[in-house]
Automatic annotation (TrEMBL):
<dbReference type="InterPro" id="IPR050114">
    <property type="entry name" value="UPF0173_UPF0282_UlaG_hydrolase"/>
</dbReference>
<dbReference type="InterPro" id="IPR001279">
    <property type="entry name" value="Metallo-B-lactamas"/>
</dbReference>
<keyword id="KW-0378">Hydrolase</keyword>
<dbReference type="Pfam" id="PF12706">
    <property type="entry name" value="Lactamase_B_2"/>
</dbReference>
<dbReference type="GO" id="GO:0016787">
    <property type="term" value="F:hydrolase activity"/>
</dbReference>
<dbReference type="InterPro" id="IPR022877">
    <property type="entry name" value="UPF0173"/>
</dbReference>
<comment type="similarity">
    <text>Belongs to the UPF0173 family.</text>
</comment>
<dbReference type="InterPro" id="IPR036866">
    <property type="entry name" value="RibonucZ/Hydroxyglut_hydro"/>
</dbReference>
<protein>
    <recommendedName>
        <fullName>UPF0173 metal-dependent hydrolase EEX84_00360</fullName>
    </recommendedName>
</protein>
<feature type="domain" description="Metallo-beta-lactamase">
    <location>
        <begin position="7"/>
        <end position="192"/>
    </location>
</feature>
C-alpha cells in the first residue's frame, strides 16, 4: 500500500485495487502537486465540511463515479448535489470493499460555504481510522489536542498518523507532539501547515519535539510504503 501527501491535508492511499483520496482540496491549494482533472479516485473520505477539505469532492466524485464517505450531514448535502455519498457518524465503523472506515472525534467546527455564500452545516468534525491490507492509518482531520487520543492509540495499532501542526485553526507543533505521544503511531506525518499565512510553521520544529515515533516530513507528492 502506498500513501502519499499532497499539501494541506490531502492524502492519497493506493491499495492493490483502489485509489482513495482524503480531503481533496486541490483547486486553490497552492501547495499541492495534483490537478483535479487528472485524478481518478474510486473513493473519497472527508473529515469535515470546511471548503479547504471538501475541496474538489463534487467534481471528482461525479467525473469518476467515486463513492464519498463523510459524516451524515455533509453526506446528505453532497447527495443533494448528485454525489454517491455514504453518511456515517462518530464512533461508527463500516467495512467497505476498499477497507474499513471508522470515524473518531475531533474538536473543530464544520460547515461548507457554497459559491453563492450560503453556509451549510456539516455536522461534527471527525478524524478517520482507515484499515486495509493489515495496516491502520489515522488522519486526525482538523482538531485540537484532546485526551481521548490516548484511547485511540491504545485501542488501535496505528502504523501511520497524519496530524495537523499549523496552530491558529488547529493544534500547533507542541500540542501535536503531545498528541503523537498519546496516539503512539509507528510513523507520523505533519499536515495542515504553510497553506495560509496564519498557519505558517517549520515542520522540523515539530519533528524535534516528537520522541516516540518516526517523523516523516513529506513534500507534496512524497510517499510512504506500508
Amino acid at each position: 500500500m502506498q500513501i502519499s501527501y499532497h499539501g494541506h491535508s490531502v492524502v492519497k492511499i493506493q491499495t492493490g485495487n483502489h485509489t482513495i483520496l482524503i480531503d481533496p482540496f486541490i483547486t486553490g491549494n497552492e501547495l499541492t502537486d495534483l490537478k483535479a482533472a487528472e485524478e481518478k479516485p474510486d473513493v473519497i473520505l472527508l473529515t469535515h465540511a470546511h471548503n479547504d477539505h471538501v475541496g474538489d469532492t463534487i467534481e471528482l466524485a461525479k467525473n469518476n463515479d467515486a463513492q464519498v464517505v463523510a459524516t451524515v450531514e455533509l453526506a446528505n448535502y453532497l447527495g443533494s448535489q448528485g454525489v454517491n455519498a455514504v453518511g456515517m457518524n462518530l464512533g461508527g465503523s463500516k467495512e467497505f470493499d476498499f477497507g474499513t472506515v471508522k470515524y473518531t472525534k475531533a474538536f473543530h467546527s464544520s460547515s461548507f460555504t457554497t459559491e453563492d455564500g450560503q453556509v451549510i452545516y456539516g455536522g461534527m468534525p471527525a478524524g478517520i481510522l482507515f484499515k486495509a491490507e493489515g495496516k491502520t492509518i489515522y488522519h486526525a482531520g482538523d482538531t485540537e489536542l484532546f485526551g481521548d487520543m490516548e484511547l485511540i492509540g491504545k485501542r488501535n495499532s496505528i502504523d501511520l498518523a497524519f496530524v495537523p501542526i499549523g496552530d491558529f485553526f488547529t493544534m500547533g507543533p507542541e500540542d501535536a507532539a503531545y498528541a503523537v505521544e498519546l496516539l503512539q503511531p509507528k510513523t507520523v506525518v505533519p499536515v495542515h501547515y504553510n497553506t495560509f499565512p496564519p498557519i505558517k510553521q517549520d515542520p522540523s520544529a515539530f519533528k524535534d519535539l516528537v520522541k516516540n515515533a518516526e517523523v516523516n516530513i513529506l513534500e507534496a507528492g512524497g510517499s510512504i510504503e506500508l
